Amino acid sequence: MAGFTPPPYPYERLESVRELARRHQGGPIECSIGTPIDAPPQFVIDNLGEAEGLRGYPPSIGTLEFRQSCADWVARRFGVTLSTDEVAACVGTKEFVASLAGFLHLRTPERDTVLFPAVSYPTYAMGATLAGLRSVPVAMTAGKLDLASIDPADIERALVLWTNSPSNPTGYLDDLQSLASWGRNNGVLIASDECYAEFTWDCAPQTILSEGLDGVLAVHSISKRSNLAGIRAGFYSGDPELVRYLRLVRQHAGLMVPGPVQSAVALAYQDDEHVEVQRARYFSRLSVLSDALETYGISAPLPEGSFYLWCRRAGTDGWGLAAELAEISGLVVSPGEFYGPQSLDFVRIAVVQPDEQISLAAERLKSAK
Questions:
Q1: Rounded to whole angstroms, what are the CA distances from 216 to 55, 62, 157, 195?
Q2: Are residues 76 and 97 in the same domain?
Q3: Per-residue confidence of the chain (369 residues) as pLDDT tens digits?
Q4: Residue 304 sits in a domain of what CATH number?
Q5: Is the same domain home to 205 and 66?
Q6: The pTM is what?
Q7: Could you list the residue range(s) of the whole structural domain that residue 90 is in?
Q8: Shared-domain flag, residues 109 and 219
């Protein structure tokens, strides 16, 4: 019997698209991966350079300073009060997303299913695969999880239902209140990936924790809000019993955020001013590129949240549209296939390049029209 063969990493499949973009002077404008490129706060970099906490093993759950800073941020941004016992560190939220299902299955072996949005970041499903579990996509209606579409047999087997709001890739906001209620009524954990929570454009930041902590987890990342993806740090919070369980099992697995990183992240979560600056940058880039794409004939509405444009044009599939954008503008974007079979006609554009690069792509699109 053949063992598991990891599939190609999605973004490594874009070489043919990049080759078309390389024909432009200056080369590709890389907007396929949501990697922040703007400078992180200098006071955080200075703190990292002090290298505090290097001598001993850092606490897996996070230092008290780290957890208190995260809890204070949740109170400030969302109006939700957490104790430091309801908060714990993770080594970047992708690691947490990928490992959660396996840890939950150890605790509840009679359940074997991960429910996740049918249009979504691929790691939700991959987390189930890596744990040897089932993954079942949940249909989307108007950008929200269609809870009524879930088969009752899958609900009985479900360890967790993932939601991502604002969504990667669509930018839609989900109904977190309805999700929390559904989870409690059906005995299914709701895990809410909220790494783009501070990038909402028509409303205040939202968290599932506002609906109470019972039966929910929220996952937050320093990567996007503070341009610190490279230091790999985030935190999870919510249901006290589940946080306590995950703290213990993750400690046994040796999952630890380095001490100097914990110190720097605690400092970053104490400041909101740099995030407001970044919000303005992203919204400006979204607006510039959305306008240019619409002028060129591609539907590219501004999202409700996140820094992605979710684009399509009737009669063109995602790979074809990605190739055309590379050829016309130098943009390298992600075909919708990466985010599920319901997305084959879309592309995702991450506005993570400098303003001048986004403006250059926009000018090329308008000139081509």
A1: 35, 20, 17, 16
A2: yes
A3: 678 888 888 888 899 999 999 999 999 999 999 999 999 999 999 998 886 656 788 999 999 999 999 999 999 999 999 999 999 999 999 999 999 999 999 999 999 999 999 999 999 999 999 999 999 999 999 999 999 999 999 999 999 999 999 999 999 999 999 999 999 999 999 999 999 999 999 999 999 999 999 999 999 999 999 999 999 999 999 999 999 999 999 999 999 999 999 999 999 999 999 999 999 999 999 999 999 999 999 999 999 999 999 999 999 999 999 999 999 999 999 999 999 999 999 999 999 999 999 999 999 999 996
A4: 3.90.1150.10
A5: yes
A6: 0.96
A7: 50-268
A8: yes
Reported in sequence order, the residue ranges of 155-307 that DSSP labels E, i.e. its strands, are 158-164, 189-193, 216-221, 234-238
286 and 263 assigned to the same domain: no
357 phi-psi bin (left φ>0, alpha ψ -120 to 50, beta other): alpha
Total domain count for the chain?
Answer: 2
